[in-house]
Amino acid sequence: MRSAILVLGQFGSIAVLLFGGGWQLPWWGWGLFMLGLLVFAWAVVSLGVNNFTILPGPRNGNSLSHRGIYRYLRHPMYTAVLLCGIAVAFGVPSLPRWIAMGVCSVILVLKVGYEERLLTRKHPSYPERMAGVARLFPGIW
Predict the structure, then answer these.
(1) What is residue 74's three-state secondary structure?
(2) Strand pairing partners for 15?
(3) Taking a C-beta distance cutoff of 8 angstroms, is the pair 69, 132 a contact?
(4) CA separation for the pair 108, 106 (Å, rounded)
(5) Distance between CA 31 and CA 88 in Å, rounded?
(6) Per-residue model confidence (pLDDT) at position 53
């Protein structure tokens, strides 16, 4: 149930970010948005088919990925959502987008903690293997 609530909140926030204002982004907004899309694509390719899920819990038969972007970030898809969200929330600001950006940020931080607890339960070596790998942004968290 918790997984579904987190995912619904995340996708609801993304919908408001996408449709809560115009798309006349400044050059830096388009650059940040494109960076987010590239991070997302790299994460999908690096993760592998059997590991992909929109829910925070690991799939049956999954493995811990250390390939590609997962060498640098534990949750690059969440990073991608944040980059794209920041691009639209600040590139073409609106009150609904700012609220959605705040809600989405909180949900993703909660999702990181929840997902890491589930991964540790399934893969007890997860904390040790992820030591030194940033959660969302290298050098920050």
Answers:
(1) coil
(2) none
(3) no
(4) 6
(5) 11
(6) 81
Q: How many domains does the chain have?
A: 1
Domain assignment present for residue 69? The answer is yes
Average pLDDT over residues 102-113: 97
Task: Give me the helices (H) in 26-122, please.
Answer: 27-47, 76-91, 95-122
Q: Tell me the β-bridge partners of 7.
A: none
pLDDT given at position 62: 83
Domain that holds residue 82: 2-52+63-130
Query: Strand, coil or helix: what is 73?
Result: strand
In a domain, 76, yes or no: yes
Answer yes or no: is 140 within a domain.
Answer: no
pLDDT mean over 30-40: 98
Does 138 fall in a domain?
Answer: no
How many residues would you count in the chain? 141
pLDDT at 96 over 90: yes
